[in-house]
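Lab notebook, bench 4. The sequencing result for the construct came back, and we need a structural model before the next group meeting so we can plan mutations. Quick request posted to the team channel:

Model the 3D structure of this chain.
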Amino acid sequence: MAKNPGESQPIDAYLASLEDPAAKKTLGALRMQLRKLLPGATETISYRMPTFKVDGNAVAGFAFFKTHCGYYPFSGSVVPPLKAQLAGYTTSKSGITFPPDKPLPAKLVKTLVQARLAEIAASGKKPSATKKKAAAKKALITDRVTDSAVKEATGRDWKGWMRALDTAKAGELNHKQLVAHLAREVESTWWQQSIAVAYEQARGKRVVGETAATGFQVGVVRTLPMGAEELWELIATQAERWLGAGATLILKPGEDYEVPKRRGSPGVRGEVRVVKSGQRLRMTWQPDGWKKPATLQLTLMPKARGVAVNVHMEKLPDAKAREAMREHWSGVLEGLAKE
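Done. Here's the predicted structure in token form:
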């Protein structure tokens, strides 16, 4: 790795400190490509490597380690689905390594970047506090995902999609219908959702973090160091560990559940709606003081080393509740990961 690249050292200094000429040339070119793919991104040093951030979210990073270079999307969900395109490379869930004299193909870098951007756009991750002004400006998906990225993935840039959807009278469709319409042309569900949200934002049918169909929503994902069967058993038989102290739960559609009020936390009640053993649980969620229930869904996705848990909530009453639920479920998953 570069010599003593301190956390605040800029990328220029990092590259200048590299002694391997091939690595310096390859990573310098990679940096230029990332600049084109991520105009307006913040260039910084994070985890001792050059990093590109958009609205406070790390999108791409790279580094040199003695004999090889590495590319990192700062996500464990970007690399695995691209297994076929990454044949021949050494990969892990979090990155790709390659020889200094054999740069990653430009097309592959674009795919990695657009996959990470689509993931961020779909998750609605909260920008860092120091980026609030920039986040307000970049809140629209059309500002966060470049024209080149959407065109590379779907065949049209943002203006092209706006025109095509206007012609198809997409403004008369609800969110579900709009996504179904897009599915005729776009295979990726991530891009279907991203384009649908971008169109609704552009035509005033949606505010940031809210959809016409599902209201305010939020998602939290975490990979836990246990098997899917073990986690499902915990969910089914140890409700107190993820719902709260004193919680009662029977995993059967139509069954009511309750979490008693305790110091610092309101009581919660709801009804189990959908149970797919080992895979998915859907239920209502209504804390004390909420006029209407929200929807809570847990989805389990087995991974090579553990199980990824996707906690998704819809029909939240407002933006304040959305951020409270993001913090709540992040804490719950963090606690489970440490046990």
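The chain is about 35% helix and 25% strand.
Will bring this to the meeting.
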